[in-house]
């Protein structure tokens, strides 16, 4: 009888211990940017879903593009494996809000560094230098910015590109969409005469198989777009770690390899890797 009583008591103690362990496990993963899914921590990174060569969600659910490669490399330096990354779509108009809300840890989404944006977020980098350009149909008569007066121009809500064109061609008819895919479709159908954004993005679309040979880049270099990695304002620790990761990416040859992999098929003449902290005006 005595042995049975001891055994029952031990079982009760064991049950309490298991319950306490389970509660502790739930409480240890309260951070919005990490979880214990799959037995490891997670990181949420903002990217674009609709930019071929930059950030694209493929039909099978995987992701491709230079920004995706940069994000994966940086996350690796921060201690995350590829299967621990959750890529979150962040459209141009919502990038600052996504960081302020804590929806993502950082954003790699063809995110040009500007003085206005630096009031709301901090930027690591730059990690790439692009130039604003125009994409038109192959037989278009448009050759320069002023040719857009009286024409229909497509851009994306929240992008700075359209406002620069308005200064060049004040009589342009501006049409804004939520994503670049809609603009490219409008250009193909003839609903608009031109699309403006960074040449790296335009090159990615022009190289897609369904559009191959239909469009041309004018090569105007209307601006310098210094791509940075956005982090929440004041998160200096993350900012410094990302800058260190970007320096490593350039020095070990990964940056050049990934640029050529993503932009090579479009025959896009990219700029050399920029120096961290140096903004080209």
Protein model, in words:
With 281 residues, this protein is α/β, with parallel strands linked by helices. It is 36% helix and 22% strand. It contains nine helices and twelve strands. It has helices at residues 2-27, 66-77, 95-101, 115-118, 161-168, 180-189, 199-206, 236-251, 254-263; strands at 43-47, 50-51, 55-57, 63-64, 85-89, 106-107, 121-137, 152-156, 173-177, 194-198, 215-217, 224-232. The strands form two sheets. Strands 1, 5, 6, 7, 8, 9, 10, 11 and 12 form a nine-stranded mixed beta sheet that branches. Helix 5 (161-168) links the parallel strand 8 (152-156) and strand 9 (173-177). Helix 2 packs across helix 8. The longest helix is centred in the first third of the chain and has 26 residues, at 2-27. It is globular and about 55 Å long. Mean pLDDT is 86; it is low at 1-32 and 34-39.
Topology diagram in text:
Blueprint: H1 2-27, E1 43-47, E2 50-51, E3 55-57, E4 63-64, H2 66-77, E5 85-89, H3 95-101, E6 106-107, H4 115-118, E7 121-137, E8 152-156, H5 161-168, E9 173-177, H6 180-189, E10 194-198, H7 199-206, E11 215-217, E12 224-232, H8 236-251, H9 254-263
Parallel strand pairs: 1-5, 1-6, 8-9, 8-10
Antiparallel strand pairs: 2-3, 3-4, 6-12, 7-10, 7-11, 7-12
């Amino acid at each position: 009888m005595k042995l049975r009583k001891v055994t029952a008591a031990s079982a009760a103690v064991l049950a309490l211990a298991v319950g306490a362990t389970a509660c502790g496990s739930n409480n240890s993963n309260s951070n919005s940017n990490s979880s214990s899914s799959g037995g490891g921590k997670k990181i949420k990174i903002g990217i674009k879903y609709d930019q071929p060569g930059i950030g694209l969600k493929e039909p099978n659910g995987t992701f491709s593009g230079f920004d995706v490669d940069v994000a994966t490399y940086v996350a690796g330096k921060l201690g995350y494996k590829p299967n621990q990354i959750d890529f979150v779509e962040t459209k141009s108009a919502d990038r600052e809000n996504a960081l302020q809300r804590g929806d993502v840890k950082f954003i790699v989404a063809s995110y040009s560094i500007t003085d206005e944006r630096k009031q709301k977020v901090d930027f690591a980098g730059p990690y790439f230098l692009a130039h604003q350009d125009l994409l038109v149909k192959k037989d278009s008569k448009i050759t320069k910015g002023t040719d857009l007066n009286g024409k229909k121009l497509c851009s994306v809500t929240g992008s700075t590109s359209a406002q620069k064109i308005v200064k060049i061609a004040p009589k342009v008819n501006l049409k804004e969409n939520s994503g670049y895919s809609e603009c490219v479709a409008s250009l193909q159908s003839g609903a608009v005469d031109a699309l403006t954004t960074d040449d790296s993005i335009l090159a990615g679309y022009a190289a897609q198989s369904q559009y191959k040979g239909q469009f041309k880049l004018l090569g105007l270099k209307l601006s310098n777009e210094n791509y940075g990695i956005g982090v929440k304002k004041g998160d200096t620790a993350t900012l410094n770690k990302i800058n260190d990761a970007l320096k490593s990416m350039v020095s070990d040859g990964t940056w050049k390899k990934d640029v050529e992999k993503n932009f090579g098929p479009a025959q896009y003449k990219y700029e050399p890797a920029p120096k961290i902290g140096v903004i080209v005006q």
